[in-house]
Amino acid sequence: MGGAISPSAGCSNFPASSSNEQSTGSGLWRASWNPTFCSRIEIHVEEEIRMKRLQRGSFAVLREAVLSGEVERSKVPSLTGYEKRAARLVTAGLVERGMLTATTHRAPLGLAFPADVAERWSSNLYPANAGSRP
């Protein structure tokens, strides 16, 4: 999976509307996702890869975190198509950017929403007029 990913690859199996409850290292995670959310993450990750801020294969790991609620570190090589050492670089980059988090360096990885990408991944999460009165 080292090559470029088209904006729709990997999102076609994404349920249009689903409600998931998963127990992760950070507690109970409840989400309702759609293909637009998946596509936004994918496009953003591709831009980060082009700017050399993330490694190729990063989207596959994030997609797994979205779909499963967490990613076992042992699955990262098969998700990315890389050997263990290169797969660790993918994981390290995602953790460093705040997109994945874990309670310990061996714990499963969970999806995180760093402030600098929250609006990008979930538009209108914080609408400009949220606190104003009509």
Task: Give the topology, please.
Blueprint (H helix, E strand, L loop, with lengths): L17 E7 L2 E7 L1 H16 L7 H11 L7 H5 L3 H13 L3 E2 L8 E2 L3 H7 L13
Antiparallel strand pairs: 1-2, 3-4
Helix pairs in contact: 1-2
Mean pLDDT comes to: 77
Percent helix, as a range, is 25-40%
Kindly name the structural category: alpha+beta
| Extended strand count | 4
* Content of β-strand: 5-15%
Low-confidence stretches: 1-33
Strand order of the largest sheet: 1-2
Number of helices, counting only DSSP H or I runs of 4 residues or more: 5
What is the first-to-last residue Cα distance? Answer: 49 Å
Globular, elongated, flat, extended or rod-shaped: what is the shape? elongated
Order of helices and strands: EEHHHHEEH
Largest sheet: 2 strands, antiparallel
Calculate Rg over CA atoms: 15 Å
